[in-house]
Fold:
Amino acid sequence: MCTSATYLLSDGSTSPKYGMHDNPTGWTYTVKPEEEFTVRVDFNPLAHGPDATGPITRMIYVISTAKPDGKFIKLNPKMPIGSLAEIKLVGNVLSEKDYNNLTK
Structure:
């Protein structure tokens, strides 16, 4: 749909694309201590039609089996392990006319 995320991993590989309604199953990756990865988020405003302009807020969640450490929040109090990081994206979708006026 309008928002999707892909993980770009330090070994050069890329995860499948995750979105609101179409999520692959069975893919896992173990992040080693001190290893970094990038989360690429794509937003397609046309998924809501050509007139869907204005402020937007979208969230991407990274779920981990790591213990919460203050940087991550507890995913579910009933889970013995697991934490969640929220990546919040805030923006303003402009019409083509408004965008062109800004870039002149």
User: Anything to note?
Assistant: The mean pLDDT is 81.
